[in-house]
Amino acid sequence: MKADKVTLIEIKYPRADREKQTCFLLVWQDWLQETDERICLTTELCCSQEEEPFILVRGIFQGLPEEALGIISPLITLGGARYRLKYLPFKEALSAFTLP
To answer: Alpha-carbon distance 38 to 63, whole Å?
Structure first.
């Protein structure tokens, strides 16, 4: 399938304590079992001295943002999720993952 444009997906759970991380990972594991093969996401549990622990999910979907939202809905149901879906050219979406 050729995709000129894709949906860039970014989900963040700020201030994700251990309980939130555990709940998210359980949802993530279930979600992976049945997910659409047009979506590719990575997830990170992040912690730094400057910021409280958070969960970060990023990736792309070969389709429209409305369809992507339906697919990722289980991942944003824990409360406190901030997400962004942006429909853009494939090359531009890839550049979002490149380090400066």
So the answer is: 8
Closest alpha carbon to 74 in 17, 25, 37 = 25
CA–CA gap between residue 65 and residue 32 (Å, rounded): 19
Give the SS3 label for residue 100.
Answer: coil
Q: How far apart are CA 73 and CA 41, in angstroms?
A: 13
Helices (DSSP H) in the chain: which residue ranges?
18-34, 65-72, 90-95
Neighbours of 41 (CB within 10 A): 19
**pTM as predicted:** 0.88
Query: pLDDT tens digits, residue range 33-47?
Result: 989 999 999 999 988
Cα separation, 19 vs 37, in Å, equals 29
